[in-house]
Amino acid sequence: MIIVTGATGQLGGRIVERLLTRVPAERIGVTARDPGRAQHFADRGIRVRPADFADPASLPHAFEGAAQVLVVSVDGLGEQAVRAHRTAIDGAVAAGAQRVLYTSHAGANPDSHFQPCRDHAATEEILRTCGVPYTALRNGFYITSALYWFAHAASSGSVAVPADGPVAWTAHDDLAEAIAAILAGETTFDGPTPPLTAARAATFTDLAAHTSSLLNRDIDRITVPDNEFRDQLTSSGLPAELADLFLGMFTAARAGEFATVDPTLEKLIGRAPMDLDAMVRDQLAAQA
Known about the structure:
Layout: E1 2-4, H1 10-19, E2 28-32, H2 39-42, E3 47-50, H3 59-62, E4 68-71, H4 78-94, E5 99-105, H5 115-128, E6 134-139, H6 143-147, H7 153-156, E7 158-161, H8 172-183, E8 191-192, H9 204-215, E9 220-223, H10 226-235, H11 240-254, H12 264-269, H13 276-287
Parallel strand pairs: 1-2, 1-4, 2-3, 4-5, 5-6, 6-8, 7-9
Helix pairs in contact: 1-8, 4-5, 9-13, 10-11
């Protein structure tokens, strides 16, 4: 059985939908902290069980019969996130999984300027020593993380963020298709995959230009000094930890940490990944 955690999330749910086109529903199990939110999968013959990485006792039942477990990374930072991932990996191994897969990041690096990439690197080290074959899915940076900053661009006519650098922004849908193909055995990776990215990297200036074209109005890209950006976030009530997180994304992009593009994603999905116009169009529609 293939177990997918976080099945009610943006990525996990998409992966399950694409798995259903490749393997019978009875070969798929999903976990969620609130199983009721996954009832639509149960209605289609998928096994749904509760699981919480903060509760190790919930995992033996959730992972029972697993041949593969896909651990979808949690929303969290630092030791809290790494501890949750360790619990899930240990639970999968204890349940007898023959392979553990994990949604890592193309920029995973213990020296990254971006905290989540340091967390991913720490989790990959746990995987390396877990005792069973593993795959670290080095996903490109989700386009949703970029267009979060454009939520008010249509009304304000601008996006004001720190200096950045090129990032291989990538769509959830493309990554879900690729991960489903890997889970279904269409191809196998031992250890970290190559970066699973779109075909080009883009800056916030590029994103502003594409957004301007799609909205049919000028969107100015304004560069804000780092300290001013951080102060704006904290003065709006954002905790300092999250302000540092957001600033770290721009700092890491400036350092070129997310600029790598790779053809592996295209090979896995059998077509060109979504281009920037398509990704921006989809996200603007979702924000409308």
